[in-house]
Amino acid sequence: MVTFNAPVDKFNEISNAGLDVMRGERLAEKFKMLDERDISVIAATGQNVIKVFRKINIGIIPTGDELIRPGENYVEGKIFESNSIAIYQALKNIIHLTLKFMILSGIHMKNLKR
Description:
The protein is of the alpha/beta class. It has 3 helices and 4 strands; from the N terminus they run αβββαβα.
């Protein structure tokens, strides 16, 4: 429930169009990662298209003969691979990630180097 303890003046806190951003004013710094506030300010100027750099695509490939995927049956001497999941979760809102959940063993790594 909202209550007002005093009368509100007519047109209080209303500004004229164009006072929030001046002509020629820079709305965001070059190479800055835009966040929701930046995009809102740009939209408030009537822009519906902006030129941006594409997000980086990164694939996370865990490596090691001792690794098994979470959900697989445990094998003695092996460990469940969790680092790629932690890295993915930490970075997913910052950059576009392509997570191909594939563990490469030492044998596969030798083939990659060729």
